[in-house]
Amino acid sequence: MTEAEMFVFLDLTLQMGHTVQGRLEDYWMKMEQLHTPFYGQTMACARYCHILRFLHVTDNNRNGVDRTDDRLWKIRDLFEIIRTNFSKFYNPSEHLAADEVIVKFKGRIVFKQYILKKHATFQHQNVQTM
């Protein structure tokens, strides 16, 4: 694996956060209605999956790491490098708006929360027909 290929892998991974698909293979789908040429032109799906399978960014035997407190302990070093570099190049202005979107999610996650007063709730409403 080359350094350039690693940058392409990270670029594709970041881009996947902007164009959300159901499955990983859907990003490389060839069907005309759902085709996104960026992924196929950048890296083959098989190569991306191969890198993803064997990617390892930390030493599991590293001493001094408390795994119970930090859920990102395996990628903490990489995360800090990315965070500091992004903060160097992105300076938001005072006129910045953050739009919250609620997406239905049935998986198990620690920070999932139910917001009662949101218009899009996670509960199914019973619709009665006349």
Please characterize this protein's 3D structure.
The longest helix is centred in the middle third of the chain and has 14 residues, at 76-89. It is built from 4 helices and no strands. The protein is mostly helical and 130 residues long.
**Helix percent band:** 25-40%
Shape verdict: globular
Tell me what portion of residues adopts beta-strand conformation: under 5%
- Please work out how many helical segments DSSP would assign: 4
Helix/strand order: HHHH
**Largest sheet: number of strands, sense, barrel closure:** none
The rounded distance between the terminal residues' Cα atoms is: 63 Å
Average pLDDT metric: 79
Radius of gyration (CA) equals 20 Å
Which stretches of 5+ consecutive residues score pLDDT under 50? 122-130
Query: Which structural class should the secondary elements be placed in?
Result: mainly alpha
State the total count of DSSP E strands.
0
Helix and strand layout, with pairings?
Layout: H1 3-15, H2 37-42, H3 45-54, H4 76-89
Keywords:
single chain; 130 residues
Compose a concise summary of this entry:
This protein has a domain at 3-89. Helix content is 33%, strand content 0%.
